[in-house]
Amino acid sequence: MKVFLKIALLCSLSAAAWGAEENFEQANVETTLPAIKRGADEVMGNCHACHTLKYIKYRDLVALGISQAKVDGWRGDEPMDAPLKAQMSEADAMAAFNKVPPDLSLMSQARDGGVNYLYSYLIGYFNKPDGTLSNHIFAETKMPDMLGMSNATDEVQKTAIKAKARDIVSFLNWTTDPHAAERIQLGKYVIAYLIVITTLLYLVKRQIWARIKYK
Fold first, then answer.
1. Domain 20-178: which CATH class?
2. Measured between alpha carbons, how far is residue 170 from residues 140, 156, 178 in Å?
3. DSSP letters along 156-171, please?
4. In the structure, what pLDDT confidence band is assigned to residue 45 with cuts at 50, 70 and 90?
5. Tens digits of per-residue pLDDT, 155-184?
6. What pTM was computed for the model?
7. What distances in angstroms separate CA 205 from CA 16, 195, 208, 210, 214, one per listed residue?
8. pLDDT of residue 144
9. Beta-carbon neighbour count of residue 24 at 10 Å?
10. Rounded CA Rg of the chain
11. Which residues of 13-22 are buried (b: 16+ CB within 10 A; e: fewer)?
């Protein structure tokens, strides 16, 4: 009986989670370099003040193709191998938000719904009738509406904000695995090598067995 109840509970929780994911807007993240670069600009301009990206180094941004001059402007006196620390100290963050803002390096994988959750969260801000700010995805959020969705008055503004949010999510999707493109390229070489070596071994095998057959 207990086992049955546990299974039923897990099924209900899974169904609830699935229902919640269905309510997320589709991010349709881009993996193109221009989109990721635009996202980096948005993150460094709107998010880096409070959030860290501890698994990303300034050197990674240069390797991505962002100019050295721009990266130097972001890092200040930090060395190139330093992780992207928040500009706000943890003490100031606690004083302002009563909690330390989470690290964003793996955020697109850390939330149920992944990139769709992040995108929906960024564009989910609205003003309640009493004038206070809330969010459709996470009503108790402490984060300000950095993109200004709650004050957007027409579709043109909302479309522009959604484009920025999509770029941010595209960049955060990249930060979860910044070396994915290198691995994919290496994988192509490995597969090509395996095809060549397999072909050569097959030809050698045929020659050896041909001699044995005739003897």
1. mainly alpha
2. 25, 21, 12
3. HHHHHHHHHHHHHHHH
4. very high
5. 999 999 999 999 999 999 999 988 766 666
6. 0.77
7. 57, 15, 5, 8, 14
8. 94
9. 21
10. 25
11. eeeeeeeeee
